[in-house]
Amino acid sequence: MDDRRKQSIGIALALSAALLWGISGAVAADAFSDVSPARVAQARALQAAMILLPLAWWRGELRMQGMAPWLVALGVNLAAVNVTFYWALERLGVGPGATIQFLGPILVLGWMVVVQHRVVSNAAWWAAVLAVIGVGLVSEAWDVANADWVGVAAGLAAAVSFAGYLLIGEHVGRKLPAVTVMAWGFVFASVFWAIAQPWWSFPTGLDGAVWGKLIWVGIAGTAIPFLLEIAALQRAASGIIGVVATAEPVIGATAAWIMLGQQLSVLQIVGGLMVVVAVASIQRWGLPQHEVPYEAAR
Fold first, then answer.
1. Which residues contact 296 (CB under 8 A, 6 or more apart)?
2. CA geometry: angle at 45 spanning 44 and 48, to 5°?
3. How far, in Å, are 140, 141, 199 from residue 144 at the CA level?
4. CA distances from 171 to 167, 178, 247 (A)
5. Is residue 79 a contact partner of residue 186, using CB atoms and an 8 Å limit?
6. What is the average pLDDT across 199-217?
7. For residue 20, which of 3, 44, 43 has the smallest C-alpha distance?
8. Domain ranges of the chain
């Protein structure tokens, strides 16, 4: 297979993953009236672990190779990014909540410069400024009296934990295969949730439709798109895949409009597009040669 065809397949796989993640946000938000965001995050982590752990075992890629403490940290970070993301979706709506979380790569950019002393282009900093302005438009920050600052705080916490996930994932990914990293990450996330929220206290009496939403979020919204993203990264550069991944908040906002009737103002739409363009620019052109892997925790 020639390189161009291989890259085209990788882009198609990444777009499929973004489509599933975007729809999953709207499905999860639709379940919040029956199950809390924290419980949805808990169910998601367990289902992903149940699929990815056997896959890692089948591939002979279960060994942690001395990285257990880092994998535990990754698992706790996954739990944090999932629940804060869902809180943001619940408070702000799917489009704004997903958009604010996408500040994560911007925060990674700052960490790379300040802590790791890595050089990035001036264009990346202009893109960061564009993203911050875009988030201000999405969250309608000028309307101080009516703005949902709890939701904004949840979105920013999701961005911080998403950045932490990317940085820890980059560190662990230097020694372990991606499937190993994510399988153990979701295992330890599930252990964290089992301690924080024992399974025997999980809501009972849920109807089939709610269980269907939870299963969708865990399988079609987590395990399957992660596997698609891994396959995409095997066929195309991570910078290109990162650009494709920025379609997620756009898809999520569209899905929320169709499924939940959540509409955005013109300024919010403009702000969301500004964030998408900024993050895509950084993923494609702004990072140094050794990029932070863009694999999903959505």
1. 17, 21, 225, 226, 229, 245
2. 85
3. 8, 6, 39
4. 6, 11, 26
5. no
6. 93
7. 44
8. 3-286
